[in-house]
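Bug: token stream looks shifted between consecutive jobs. Job 1:
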Amino acid sequence: MRIRLLVAAGFAAAALAGAANAQTVGIGITKGTALDQMAAALSKTVSSHGNMQMRPQPMGGTQTYIQVIDEGKLEFGIANVMQTYMAVHGTGISEGHKFPNIRAVATLMAFRNGLAVANNSDIKTTADLKGKRLPYGFKGAPLFRYFIDATLANGGLSAADVTQVPAIGLAQSWNLFKQGKVDGVITAIGSGPTTEMNATISGGVRFIDMETTGPRAEKTLDTLPGIYFAKVSPDPKFAGVHSPTDIYGYYFVVLTHKDVPADVVTRVAKAIYENVDEIKATAAMWISFNAATVAKQHKGIPYHPAAEAFYKSVGAWK
């Protein structure tokens, strides 16, 4: 199978099988996002230790480069496990369009987020969201509609039980919250936007606790495959966490095409696995990244055989 390499100047006609010789591979990014920062760190490490050059390739969004990778026109990308699962199985935001060639290479850090409300709000549980105003739609970031749906399911509710306030993306939803036009938003623990909302909104913000057992919890996890419940304790760095709170946790993974040569994938996996500390030193977002979870397996997301073989050879595959 011949696959064209994506390089900074555009698509260069070349066989993917020649990537190892060319010593240049691309990794998809969405500029100005956390994924951009992740790819920059990985590119530097792989280029320094993988005997190849990895070059970030800006694209219009994660879903865009997932398709490009699946078509064999780009070697690598980064996505969260929920979006990856949906892509592989043709569900959720990939409904009706499977991307069967996607494979995992490495597991990166875990992110944690949840639904934040005003601290003085009468919303104490997910069931209390009934009749409240929530951002919805998220045409520019469709995965977050599923975060809202999952949160409502946690309270035994659906989108029909709330007032849906149209929002294209996360930034717009946060602005609506600060303007008092919605009663809660999805946001990340310890993030800049959460800290800003906590400072802007009178009385600050508070993350609401999720139900972690029972049928409602199961429906929540089914709505966002690959997500898990994570308990967060109060910390000066975590605005909105006033007591031990169960919120969402999820990992990011490095993706590739199933036909990317084994040698290329092995060198990328090896560079990441052996240089965790170097990668962690690039930004605070990597705090949860560690060698013990680089080979973490995720239900419904197959690894590239070369990555699996490498992790088995170093005893990291569990």
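Job 2, same session, no restart:
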Amino acid sequence: MSDYRFIKFTRIKGRADLTLNRPPRNLLNVEMLEEIVDVLGKAREDESLKVLVIKGSGSNFCGGIELQERSSDRVGILMPLFTRMFDFLNAACGLTIAAAEGEVSDGGFELYSFCDVCIATEGTIFGFPEISFGHYPLIATAILPRLIGRNRALDWILSGDKISSREAYRAGMINRLVRDGELMNEVNRYADKISTYSAPAIIWAKRAIDRSLYTPVMEAMRTSESTYMIELLNNIDPHEGLKAAIEGRTPNWRDL
């Protein structure tokens, strides 16, 4: 097991496991993203890797980005790391599997969405709450319309509603839906099956699909990051919304 502070990483034969380790919600911060990027950077070069399982420590997958990390003095460090995580995840050798239960929201939902296969329990709750504090999920705007369609993506992002596992499954955001308590049994069964196949076959089948689908996605992701950093954060409301969320009060929107 590698020595990290906010994640756990194990590598056994053709399988690797990356565990987000900031319970109870496994919130993302700059230091945690640096560790994830370090692991995923190595996964890009590891052509013997067949399966990479991403999961959360405890009862939640990931509640997203810690609010304080979006502050004006941190966001310029955070967002390049955040988008690099998806660049590296997209380029990882082997099949990436999201193993989700509990809370999957904000940037955690985006991380989940970017994995190749998504396995979740019936009690898992998804959502994009960013609109409630004057922000939007920049990665989701790039990938979600391609996964579930434009109108449903707009609904999920702009309503800020919580999304049940059943709704996510019907929308195609869950490949395998399992009963609570059975998550890792199904993940291990599926990962073991994939691990019996040839590494080059897994890698090149994945890359063939990604070259047709994710080239425009990656371009859209960079456009969304630029829009978020330059256009959205140049307004007053995103900063008021974040301050209100941290202070636990209702935002005083100025529509500016």
